[in-house]
């Protein structure tokens, strides 16, 4: 870095966590861990949320274990942060996640000079984050690394923006507010990633459903084929529901595995919240199709999902 560049980059670099430094959201992951480890506490989530999002994050974080070493970090961004720190720049982690989580991440990475985070009282997001940073560093006295439209409130008060994993058009909006120092392109969920989420290759074993019809030489039985097609789809969607649920509840163990860490949810290629929404939809579709099949099909649904 030249002397001129060094002078220009003396402003502290403030870094967001969820969706920026890591390819996941710690609120979602904390909720999933509590669901797995302390399922009865899930019933208390609405009560915590009524007391504020900061309380919710504090309660969830206190009830879930975190191994910061296993999180899916944005390696390109992390490498750049290390370079900036080596050049003398002050690096600050500022996140809406709970402080216990932020401090664990900061301790693991060893790249941050300071940590600002939600504390059970203030949810350090959006306008609250913007006000806190302006109070501490002054208007235009810091550069901010973020990933979402919620960060526009912060960029409005920043000197420069660093846009990471942003949706299309986000960098342009940030540039209109404070100018963009650098952009790290977003990773898009591909068709291949969704095939892995659904385990489409595992559906092939459900083709065994068609064997009785073929063995009985009833190839011309149109009604039989239609019934079996519905059964096949129902079985397959049910199996995918189970795979998604297992992947969401086994994020840490998958990330510790040399091969499973590349799975879409574990790597952050597909956000966990999308799996949370998709699983019940697939299950409902499976049950609906199973009901159309009729008979004793539903009680035996999903026997071929292993």
Descriptive report:
- There is one protein chain.
- The protein is elongated.
- Helix 8 links the parallel strand 4 (143-146) and strand 5 (160-164).
- It is 50% helix and 10% strand.
- The model is unreliable at 1-7 (pLDDT under 50).
- Helix 12 (222-249) runs antiparallel to helix 15 (272-293).
- It is built from 15 helices and six strands.
- The chain starts with a helix and ends in a 13-residue tail after the last helix.
- The longest helix is centred in the C-terminal third of the chain and has 28 residues, at 222-249.
- It has two domains: 3-184, HAD superfamily/HAD-like (Rossmann fold, 3-Layer(aba) Sandwich), CATH 3.40.50.1000; 191-300, no CATH class.
- A six-stranded parallel β-sheet has the order 3-2-1-4-5-6, sandwiched between helices.
- The chain has helices at residues 3-8, 26-37, 45-50, 53-62, 75-86, 99-109, 126-137, 152-155, 170-177, 191-198, 211-215, 222-249, 251-255, 264-267, 272-293, and strands spanning 13-15, 91-98, 114-118, 143-146, 160-164, 180-184.
- The chain has 306 residues and is an alpha/beta fold.
Which characteristics define this entry?
single chain, 306 residues, alpha/beta, Rossmann fold, 2 domains, 6-stranded parallel beta sheet, 15 helices, 6 strands, 50% helix, 10% strand, elongated, disordered N terminus
> Which CATH class of the largest domain?
Alpha Beta
Specify the biggest β-sheet.
Answer: 6 strands, parallel
Shape: elongated
CATH topology of the largest domain: Rossmann fold
Number of domain units: 2
Structural class call reads: alpha/beta
Query: Quick one: how many beta strands?
Result: 6
Give the topology string: H per helix, E per strand: HEHHHHEHEHEHEHEHHHHHH
> Any guess at the CATH architecture of the largest domain?
3-Layer(aba) Sandwich
> How many alpha or pi helices?
15
Distance separating the two termini: 54 Å
Alpha-carbon Rg, integer: 24 Å
- Report mean pLDDT, rounded to a whole number: 90
**How large a portion of the residues is in β-strands, by DSSP E?**
5-15%
């Amino acid at each position: 870095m030249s002397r001129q560049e060094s002078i220009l980059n003396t402003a502290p670099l403030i870094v967001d966590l969820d969706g920026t430094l890591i390819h996941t959201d710690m609120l979602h992951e904390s909720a999933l861990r509590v669901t797995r480890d302390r399922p009865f506490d899930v019933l208390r989530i609405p009560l915590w949320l009524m007391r504020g999002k900061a309380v919710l994050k504090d309660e969830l974080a206190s009830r879930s274990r975190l191994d910061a070493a296993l999180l899916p970090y944005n390696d390109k961004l992390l490498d750049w942060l290390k370079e900036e720190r080596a050049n003398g720049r002050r690096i600050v982690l500022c996140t809406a996640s709970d402080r216990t989580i932020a401090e664990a991440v900061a301790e693991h990475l060893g790249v941050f000079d300071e940590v600002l985070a939600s504390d059970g009282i203030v949810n350090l997001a959006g306008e609250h984050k913007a006000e806190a940073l302006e109070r501490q560093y002054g208007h235009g006295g810091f550069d901010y690394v973020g990933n979402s439209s919620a960060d526009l409130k912060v960029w409005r008060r920043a000197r420069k923006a660093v846009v990471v994993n942003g949706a299309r058009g986000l960098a342009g909006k940030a540039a209109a507010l404070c100018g963009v120092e650098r952009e790290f392109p977003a990773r898009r969920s591909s068709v291949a990633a969704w095939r892995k989420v659904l385990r489409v290759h595992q559906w092939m074993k459900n083709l065994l459903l068609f064997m009785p019809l073929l063995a009985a030489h009833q190839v011309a039985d149109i009604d039989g084929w239609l019934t079996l097609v519905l059964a096949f789809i129902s079985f397959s969607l049910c199996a995918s529901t189970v795979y998604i649920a297992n992947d969401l509840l086994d994020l840490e163990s998958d990330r510790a595995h040399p091969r499973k860490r590349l799975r879409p949810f574990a790597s952050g290629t597909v956000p966990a919240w999308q799996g949370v929404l998709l699983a019940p939809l697939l299950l409902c579709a499976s049950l609906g199709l199973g009901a159309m099949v009729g008979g004793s099909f539903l009680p035996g649904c999903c026997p071929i999902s292993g």
